Every structure is written in structure tokens, then in C-alpha cells.
Amino acid sequence: MSKIAFIGLGNMGAPMASNLARAGHALAVHDLVPASVARLAEAGARAAASAHDAVAGADIVITMLPASRHVEGLYLGDDLLAHIDTRALVIECSTIAPESARKVAAAAQARGIAMLDAPVSGGTAGAAAGTLTFIVGGEADALARARPVLEQMGKNIFHAGPAGAGQVAKICNNMLLGVLMAGTAEALALGVANGLDPKVLSDIVAKSSGRNWATELYNPWPGVMEHAPASKGYAGGFGSDLMLKDLGLAGEAAQATRSSIPLGALARNLYAMHGAAGHGGLDFSSILKLYKPD
């Protein structure tokens, strides 16, 4: 088993780290929220006093942080790379700008450290169940080293290309997800306003040409799916502010390549409106509130 440092124990990071602890790895964890660290310590992990402490002697370093500035701040600003053994493998699982991923990877390479960008898809349920999809950018030999550990947190592992490619693929996926969720919420609200039962309509769509991930696994209408965040007050899950961040990253990528993303831009504006209304901390399926105010 490996000696693993895991930094970032939010809604996604905590269950991912828990799966590694259950697999028997020697796990050191760190987060800015002490309660999150304490929960992992109860599961057998070592509570590290700092990120520098966590990576001391680690074979593998995994980070799951909110945004590009946090990743650059940790690896470059706090110079975490200087505290990582050059024989270690770094797996950066946050969803960040491709340029940030390339910048940090280049700094790691300059120190002789192998690094992968490996953002994930599958949500908190997938993180807890160990069924995440990892979308990986970096060298193939580094991915071969990472694969046994990634397989203890996920079911699907894709090599998207060189450094930063994992982030590009993840941004494209999340842009589509934001568009689909906003469209699904809009369609359900229209049907209910015209007298349909939301569950009946959802069942119809799920077996028809409008079916998508939201109608099958993550319905935005409260009460339709018992285990979806919509049925739990939109608590947990993938925050609307995080979706807004990812849609913003898609916009930056489009601007850099002069690509046209009219639906992606519209979805970003819808989530900006949603956040401005005070719902940024709710799961992203709460975009339904734009069409069905409380």
C-alpha cells in the first residue's frame, strides 16, 4: 500500500479520501476546516498540521481544491512542490483552468516531479461509492503509476492527452452538464405549470428523446428522486457557485480559441442570476428555482 497525502476535504475530497483509507493506505490529510480533518482521522488517517506536513514522505500527493487560485497558491505560492519528494507522484483532481494546470505541471516537471491533472465527474454520490470518472492529462507512464490508486476511487479512467488536457475535457463536460440541467429544469417547470405531475413527466422524458443524466440520476424537481439533492433541500452535491465557476472556465477557454459557445454563455448567465438571488451555496440542480420560485 502507498503512503498518500490528501489535501482538500470538501464535498468531493472527503469521500474520495475515505475510500483510500478503507483500502488500507497510510493516509495523511489536511484541510482548512478542522472538523473535516477530524472525521478522516476517525477513519484512520493521520491529521496533518499543514499541507507541508501532509506531504512529508508521501509516495502520492492528491489535491482536491475549489479553484485555480487555490491550486496555484498551494503549489506555487506556498511552494508545496519544494516539500514533495522528487520520486512522488502528484495527482491534482480539482477542476481549474487548463493554463493553471499546465503552469503547475511545468513547475513540477522543473523539480523532477511527475504530475497529472485528473479532474473528476460523478458528483458526491460517485465519490462516496468509488465510481467516479477520472479525466486525466499528463504523461502515460505517470498515469500507469496512478491507475491502481485512481481505481480505488473511480470506475472509469480516461487519458485525455498531455498536461492540461484533462481540464479541457472536464470543462467541456461541465458546460454541457450546466446546459442540460438548466434545460431540464425549464422543461419540468413548463410541464407542471400546464398541469402535469413532475414525476410522470420525468418518467416520460427519461424514456424518450429528451432523456439525459439529470432525468435519469439527478432530477432537479423535489420529491421525484428520493436520493437527489433536490429532495434534500438542495443540500450537498455540486454547488451552484462551482458550476458558475466551471462555466466561466468554459468561457475563458472559448475566448482563448475564438470558439463560439452561445448555449454555454447562456447557462453561465443563468447560474450567475441564480447565485445573485442567494442560491450559490445550493446544489446546481436548484437552478429550478429560476423557473419555480418558492
UniProtKB/TrEMBL annotation:
Q: Which UniProt keywords apply?
A: Branched-chain amino acid catabolism, NAD, Oxidoreductase
This protein's source sits in the domain of life called Bacteria
Pathway(s) it belongs to: Amino-acid degradation; L-valine degradation
InterPro entries, alphabetically?
3-OH-isobutyrate_DH-rel_CS, 6-PGluconate_DH-like_C_sf, 6PGD_dom2, 6PGDH_NADP-bd, HIBADH, HIBADH-like_NADP-bd, HIBADH-related, NAD(P)-bd_dom_sf
Which residues carry out catalysis? 170
Q: Which GO terms describe its molecular function?
A: 3-hydroxyisobutyrate dehydrogenase activity; NAD binding; NADP binding
Report the catalytic activity.
Answer: 3-hydroxy-2-methylpropanoate + NAD(+) = 2-methyl-3-oxopropanoate + NADH + H(+)
Q: Which parts of the sequence belong to the 6-phosphogluconate dehydrogenase NADP-binding domain?
A: 3-161
Q: What is its EC number?
A: 1.1.1.31
Q: Which residues form the 3-hydroxyisobutyrate dehydrogenase-like NAD-binding domain?
A: 164-291
What is one Gene Ontology biological process annotated in the Swiss-Prot or TrEMBL record?
L-valine catabolic process
Q: Which family does it belong to?
A: Belongs to the HIBADH-related family.
Name recorded for this polypeptide = 3-hydroxyisobutyrate dehydrogenase
Q: Which organism is it from?
A: Bordetella genomosp. 8
